[in-house]
Amino acid sequence: MHSHHRIRPLVFWPTFLLLLVALLLSYLDLSAFLSLAGAANKWILGHFSWLFSLASFSLLLTCVWVYCSPIGKLRIGGADARPLLGRKRWFAVTLMTTMAVGVLFWTTAEPIYHLYYPPAAYHLSAGSPDAASFAMSAMFLHWTFTPYAIYTVPALLFGLVFYNLKLPFSVGSMLQPLLGRWVGGCRGQLIDALALYALVAGMASSLGTGALALVGGINQYLPLPASPFSIGLVIAAIVVTFVCSALSGLQRGLTWLSSINTWILLGLAGFLLLFGPTTFILAFGLESFGNYLNQFFRLSLSTGAASQDGWAGSWTIFYWAVWFAWAPISAMFLGKISRGYTVREVIVMNLLLPAGFTALWIMIFSGTALSIDLGQAGLLKGVLESQGVENVLYTIIRQLPLSGVMVAMVVFIAFLNYVTAADSNTDAISNLCTAGFSADSAEKAGMGMKVVWGVVIGVVSWVMTSYAGGVDGVKMMSNLGGLPALLIIMGCMLSLIVLVRSGKLETPPVAAAAAAAKENQ
């Protein structure tokens, strides 16, 4: 069998077995499992909130520094490297890999939470115009520049070490400029396994919530209540679609799906802007973005230590933990598709353009949600508390013309959105678990592995959502991956700084890279 089809056992098996154990524990004694995971989660948030805030803020500053440095002109893969994707397709794939299904439902539900339950430190009255303005600022913080910086730094670093330094396809390779040979061999594989566990748990959590949202949408037309059968049906449809897409290769399946998805999202946003409270969206969105920029440092570095009200831990720090958990492996995919573009172009495509797109999305969707709730005496607050997160968006669409068609479109987008995010991450997971995968074998790695991980993620998600008390347990598992992932990404940030300052990128050490590749297999 050719080398690139061999499993890296220390990456594949620990993650696979750990997920199996977690599933069994949650199935045998859910309350004990949730209690244990909850206590660990609380301990992490209690002791490391400051580190999550500091790290995420530092990553944004690092992006600015690298963009302005002379290395900005360097091309990923060398001066003669040809791009894997054209710019439009590159943007579509990047956006769909990072945006995922959560942004559809949370950008309408989350601002309602902040409107009625703002942090004590800000001394805001629940349901007031000031609380509405704060809610929008919090949305910009949680979904735009800072989270995309958490992806961009490791993505840029991976592109450089994989293509320019010819290091193996692994998380350990990203830490090599900082830690040298220490991250080779077994230690490198165990770092990969840790990053893999965080991502698979996160994907299973996202698939579970996505499936519930889809069942909720289908239930608007057909009598299909949430049950193990209906959830299993939706999850199976998603898994089959993204595995087929992954098997068809990057150039065909994923770019095609991403392009369709981007255009439909633009159409939905345009429709809401046109038929929603247009003037309020534009005026309030602009004002709130100004407030976000004005309060940027306070919002970014807030930990809730003085007020002790738990808001920062429940929201900002929780989000940073989730973004960090996804970042190491998602960034490997983003780095892989950045070949042929300069460092500055990678920062623009992975940070500025997606953050700008999401900022406009928030202005439209969060602005509409706040406008409806303030104008109709807490309508959406009632829906949120009685029917759940996913029904807030459906309630908003019911207020608009062509609501029947638009709800169907949202269900379709939610389906496609998860498929495209899962496709790209399954691609990275498969490459990571496959020995001998290198920059020269970029389109050949692990077809069977994609099927295996697609099925594993689907089964974990279905069992947790249907039989183990919903997605709480798997969310906890994902969050617990946030702390080790945070340490990995901080290592990536320091590694990028060391690499930029070392001058190694001008003349890649081919012999050293070959030795490192051999050691990592």
UniProtKB/TrEMBL annotation:
- Its domain of life reads Bacteria
Keyword hit for Transmembrane: yes
Q: What Pfam families does the record tag this protein with?
A: BCCT
Q: What is this protein called?
A: BCCT family transporter
Membrane topology, record value: Multi-pass membrane protein
Q: Which UniProt keywords apply?
A: Cell membrane, Membrane, Transmembrane, Transmembrane helix, Transport
Q: Mainly localized where?
A: membrane
Source organism:
Chromobacterium fluminis
Q: TM spans, by residue?
A: 47-68, 89-109, 148-165, 194-217, 229-250, 262-286, 317-335, 347-372, 392-416, 451-469, 481-500
Q: Where in the cell is it found?
A: Cell membrane
